[in-house]
Each structure stands twice: as structure tokens, then as C-alpha cells.
Amino acid sequence: MKIALAGNPNSGKTTLYNAITGKNEFVGNWPGVTVEKKEADLKRKYNSEGADVRVVDLPGAYSISPFTSEEAITRDFVLGEKPDVIINIVDGANVSRSLFFTSQLLELGIPVVVALNKSDILAKRGDKLDFNSLGKELNCRIVPTTATSGTGLLELVKAAIEVGKEQKKQISPSFDGKDSNDSKLARQKYIDQIIEKYQVKSRDASKVNISDKIDRIVAHKWLGLPIFFLVMWAVYAISIGGIGGYFSGYFNETLFGEIIPTAANGFLESISVHPILQALIVDGMIAGVGAVIGFLPLIMVLFFCLSLLEDCGYMARVAVLMDRFFKKFGLSGKSIIPMIVGSGCAIPGVMATRTIEDINQRRMTVMLAPFIPCGAKLPIITLFVAVFFPNHLWVGPSVYILSIAMIVLGGMLLKKIFVWENTSQFIMELPEYKVPGIGHAAFQMLDKAKAFIYKATTIILVCNTFVWFAQAYSWSFQPVADQSMSILASIGTFIAPLLLPLGFVGWQLGAAALTGFIAKENVVATFAVLLAVASEEALHLPGGALSQFFTPVTAFAYLAFNLFTPPCFAAIGAMNSEMGSRKWLWKGLAFQFGVGYIVAMAVTQVGSLIVYGSPAVGFIPAIIIAAVTTVYLVLKIKKSNTQRANMEIAA
Amino acid sequence: MKLSKAKIGQTFTVQNVEGKDKVKNFLFTLGCFEGEEITLVSKLAGAFIINIKDSRYAIDEAMANSICVSI
Predict the structure, then answer these.
(1) How far from the centroid of its chain's Cα atoms is residue A616's Cα?
(2) Pairwise CB contact (< 8 Å): B53 & A423
(3) What is the pLDDT of residues A244-299, one digit of tens each?
(4) What's the CATH architecture for A2-200?
(5) Helical H runs in A327-432?
(6) Cβ-Cβ contacts under 8 Å, B44 against chain A
(7) Is 2.30.30.90 the CATH number for B3-70?
(8) Domains of chain A: which residue ranges?
(9) Residues of chain B contacting A8 with CB distance shorter than 8 Å
């Protein structure tokens, strides 16, 4: 039996889904958190008869006719895949709006059970709803629930399974004008009518409430932005500088830097393992994976903080706050949500663009959101800052400022290059604030930790083993005395000329950048493997082994290069599905690669001139590339301007 | 009168909604159509905070311009 969960955005579908399936899907307090359908088995506790029950969580929708692309997923599922039962989650905080969708669902013929969710809010407000009579009116069962605490869920699931077994066709309520031309209006009138009949409201929703008062501060014309930056700064200060950073420092320098390699070497020697195997295990696997796992505390604290932020209701306000600025360069205020979500991981970040209604704004957001450093890029930033800028506290935050600057500049550039009519309007529901769930945040954190360890011990382990092998052997599979004769060196040498204008000298840098496309953590892991073999010094110490490859200026450029060039393969996959066409994916990747390349080049060449008073290597080719790019952009913008002018004439 | 010109804190009756069908339909499902009540709660950071039925929405000036109301 298949039970589908459908209802308005932010009515608590995913919270209910998590409760009855035992899953831990992403929830948050803004409309449009869930952007794809999720499926799982019903939890044993709710399934006393042990029947085969699958539960499908769907993105929120205000009606059966979609406004945004994630709403279309919901429509396609309920119309196309015909679940056996629909549990319609009605938002207790706004029953009258929810019932519009309910009345449409009742007409599909699929049995419907209504979960009157957030019934605690309803009770707190002092509103009363005669749900028994309402259920009779609508010909379906209504069960009051509070998904956050689990109240009423047993009864709800029991009712759903019962009607699912009966397999009776749902009979929809009839109302005046249902078959008329203006059936939509008749439907709204009918709902107004039954609400009048069965709901007693003791609160005037239009009066200013606490949420409004908070909004007047956090979305204030002048205070809003400083507050937002302060909040984001606090999130990073706690995770990178505070507890997360402290434990990561210990993990990197002591645990994986000394204790574990020494112990492993001692152990492997004592059981007289072959030296090559010992090198593979210690220098390849432990060094590489350890360099990544060391950042686990940092990632955990980051996700914990982000989860609290997402759960409280602030995100919707940030979208409102940003709309004014983002409109200026072709984005929507909603574009900020993918960027904040993307600061944890770019994949859900890119997927979160689905709630943006306008396709052009959505494509631009997909291209720009990955500029915000994701959790996997943090190890690179932290490593480079620790090695090259140990006494310069501004360098870490400057990376974020640079990424925001590139989003703004990139947005302005894209707006000039692409030709489209921007007529989209902004609307966003503002949910009431709530106290974020600590328990949920803790679960999210553990979930992310599990995923992180899984990634480190699978894909990154495989990559590291390959990197170790490729730096130790030649193409004829003979061990090499010198890394520069190895397979990896020859691959790296192949790319190295491309990186020369950026001041990056050495095949190692090419190899690390290349493995970074598989997963960004690999950049750190690859350096760890290469240097564990070549040098005795710990990776994370100030002025450590990495400084043979970089000056502080080129180190910053290398950071920028990894920050802005296309994200990992998985995120590119997500970009592909959100762009909606292969052509746009290539445009996006070319744009990201171009930005990463040019920014790194500018940092190296301009930075070297200013800081060291002499140009870096590759100065001449850099000037040529800069000139060619400028000419290309000028021509491209001219062409777009002509196209725009033609469009206006045609219109 | 356009909603963008309305006074904060006042409740109005929607007269009509202009603009693209898609947006009009969307506002309709939220309960913003001729004859329904709408309240302008506040103006924040260039956006208009409105109350329709039991919920708050933030809309931009362009959308506030497309909603005509009367007292």
C-alpha cells in the first residue's frame, strides 16, 4: 500500500513523515524546504499488523495547478502514480487556505484522510474547529495531530490504512457552481462558507503579533543586513573558530598528525607487513582520509548551527531582506536560501533553487550559489589559512567576502550577457517564528557526520589509494624512486601549463585540483598523500610542507581557484537537473570555470606585483588571457545589447 | 486604490488583481481575489507584508501595485 503525504508548504509534511517512518529528512521553517519526493517504509510502531506500507513525502503545494516546479512534482505524483491513500496535511495555522487544496484532492477519487496538523497552535490561539462535522461535510476522516510531538499520529496512520484497505472511491463534497465556468471562485466561496460554519476564531490574524514585531527588527531597512551578517558570522565563528575549530585542530595536528600514524607504523612493523603495503596504508589511506576526517568536528558544528537557523523561521525573512538587492542583478530574494543551504553542501543548495518561480532567475542562482564555500571546501580554506596566514585573522573571513563579491559581480555580468525579459514578481509566505528543535538539530548533525565519514571512507579512500599508487608507480607499473617520474606526475604535468598563468607551478597542484572535481575534500587529501610520502613535516603546521609549492599570494589564489571553479561531480549532477537543459549546464560550467580561473589569475599577478614588487611566473600569458577575455566580454555584451534593443523594437 | 499606496495597519477589500495569469491564479489560491479581505501589516526592506486569511506574506512593490483595494 502506498500512502502519499500532500498539503500546503510548511504545513509539517516532512516532520510527520520523519515521525512515522523514522527517517531524518531535512525540515525547516520556511515554505519550500522539501523539493523532491521521498519514500520510505512505515515504522514498525505505527504498523501493528505488519502490512506492506510505503509512505511518500511530497513537496508542498497550494493547489493542484502548480506555481513553481516543485509543486509540479506533487501534482504529477498524485495524478500519475495513483497512491492508495492520500494523507492531506492541513495546516492548523491556516485551515481555510489549506482546504482549497483539500477540496481538489477529494475530487481525484483516491481515498483521503485529513491530518489537522499543528493542532497545538490552533489550541494555543483559542481557535476552535468542529472537525467531526467538517469531516462529515467533506466525506473524509479528520484526525487532529501535532507532528512535532507525535500526538495523534497512531490514530492517523490507523485511519489511513483502514481506508486504504477498503479501496472505496472517494466521494467529493458537492457545492453550488462546481461545474460552472467559474468553479474556482465557487470553490473558494464554498470553503469560506464551511469555515464560517465550523470554525470559531478567537484571534484576529490581521493584528500585529510577536512575529511581526521581530520582523520589524530583523527585516528593517537599515538594521536587516548588519543583523544577517552578524548571524552568519556567529555561525562560522562557532563552527570554524570555536568548538568545531578547536577539536578539528586537535584531530589534525595530534590525532591524525602523530598518534595514529605512529601507532599504525608500529603495529604494521611488529607484524612485519611488507613495506609497500605499510606505505600504502599509512601514507596513502591514513594520511589522506585522516586529513579529511580531521575536519569532522567542524562540519558537525556547522550543520548543527545551520539546522537551528533553518528551523526558527529566519530564512524566509532573509529572502525578503535580500530581494531588494538581488533584483538589481537579476536574482530573486529567494536566491539567498540556496546560498545559505549551500554553505553546508552545494547539492541541496542547488536543489533548493526549485522554489524560484522564474526559470532565468533559477538558472542564474544555480550558477552563482556554488560560489559560497560548502562544507567540503572548508578543509581547503582551513588548511591554507593555517599554513600560510597563521597570524592574519582576516584571511578566513575574507574568503567569504570574496565569494559574496563574486556573486554580486558575477550576477551583474550574467545580467549583461544573457538576454531575457525580467518580469518576475516576489512573493514569500512568512511563517511564524518558533523555537528551533535542539533534538532535530542534533539528529541532523549526526546524520551529516555519518554521511561525511561514509564519504571519507569510500570515495575519498578510493581516490587516495589511487593517488598513492599513481605517485609511487610509473606507467609500466614499476615503483619509482622519484615522484616526478610517476603516473600522477605525468597526468599533473599535462594540466600544469594551463595553470602557469595563475602562478601555480608544479604537477602536484594540477593533480590536486583534478581530484578536487571528484570531491573537494580530495584537494586536501591529495596534498596529504603527496607530502606524507615526500616529507616528514605535519601538513597543518604554519609554514609547513605546503610552502614549497606556494607563496602566500599564490596560496590565496589557489584557494580562490578551488572556490569558484565548478563544484564536485555530484553538485554538477544536481546543476544539470535544475538547469533543465544540457546547453545551460555547459554555459554554467564555463562561467564558473572562467570566474575561478580569472580570479585566481588576478590574485596571483596583481597580488605578486603589489606584495613582492615583481610579477609572478606566467605574467606574459596572463596578460594575453586577460586581454582576450576582456575583448570577448565586450563583444558579447555589445551583441546582447543589440539583441535587447531588437527585442524592444519588436515589442 | 493600489495596495502599494495603502495605509499600514488597515484592512481592505480586494477589488481586483492585475498582471500575469499565473501570478493571479497563485494569489487566488492563497485567498487574494475580489471581495476578500487583505491587511497591510507593515512595510519592511522594500517589501509589503500582507495578511490574507490566516497567513502573512511578503510581496514586492510590483505585486503590491497589481492589487487594487478599497476600504
Answers:
(1) 37
(2) no
(3) 888 888 888 788 878 888 898 889 888 888 888 888 888 888 888 888 888 889 88
(4) 3-Layer(aba) Sandwich (3.40)
(5) 336-342, 346-351, 359-368, 378-388, 395-417
(6) 215-216, 219-221, 224, 320-321
(7) yes
(8) 2-200, 227-650
(9) none
